[in-house]
Amino acid sequence: xxxxxxxxxxxxxxxxxxxxxxxxxxxxxxxxxxxxxxxxxxxxxxxxxxxxxxxxxxxxxxxxxxxxxxxxxxxxxxxxxxxxxxxxxxxxxxxxxxxxxxxxxxxxx
Length: 109
Description:
Oligomer: single chain
Number of domains: 1
CATH class: Alpha Beta
CATH topology: Dna Topoisomerase Vi A Subunit, Chain: A, domain 2
Strand content: under 5%
């Protein structure tokens, strides 16, 4: 998110540092259910991560991006996160298939 919206610490220069056209293609919270990622591959969120998600939902910049807001809300409600490596537990080559699917179907934010 820092790349897309800029850093709060560098707010005075965010317009030159941010990349508004940036898209996130990685593993989204909504993908956990969609791709049936097993709980054994999920990571519980720490309290500081939950607090960070809550804080992100309160930021003005997120209000203009409902897809981001929805994903952050799902993350906060689910109390789980996962790394893209967790997709490798499904089957050999699944990560490449997953990323190809995301690109073809425009399933990124």
